[in-house]
Amino acid sequence: MPETAAIHGNPLVGLYVRASEDLAVIGVRDEKVEGLIAEELEVEVTRTTICGSELVGVMMAMNSKGAVVSKNILRKELEALERKVDVLVLDTEITCMGNVIALNDRGAIVHPELDRRLMDRISDFLDVEVVQGTIGGIKTVGMSAVVTNRGALVNPNANDWEMKRIEEVLGVEPVKGTVNFGSEMVGTGVVANSKGYVAGRDTTGFELGVIEEALGFL
Fold this sequence. Notes:
By secondary structure, the chain is α/β, with parallel strands linked by helices. Helices cover 27% and strands 25% of the residues.
């Protein structure tokens, strides 16, 4: 049965959690949600804020190679994160790395205005191809898609060029959908890897079916 959750009563679970194949990072103390994510995604769960914020899904990007954060991360947060995963700290004023990067273990699509120097560092560190792009016409690609190694749920306004770009760079076949009763910013409402997912509490049965198809669970 599909699992749904809310954090602080908020169905936008993707704002508070970032997951890879082996690790999930959550920015709030919520043992019920931590247990749910550990069970559904089959990962270790660690708790820390990033850049002083509980919104770790917004503040960091991550795949199996490591995590990407901005220079605004606090020392104690970096130390906590480095105990679990390799971390790339980018010298940029952009704090919301999870907003501007959509990635899996094969590739990454980033905000179209992200500096080429930063793109090269991300590519070298995560060992993936990195290209600029939009998803659904949205520059904050990390919130406009949910990408794993098995599939991708993307903003329903994604055009044919964007869909083809996702398939070529990330190596998965994207499916358009919504979360939380019609939200097009699907990255805000789903936490997922190739083994499982947790969606926001307001996600409808129909939306859950599309999510399962998109992420390869049907």
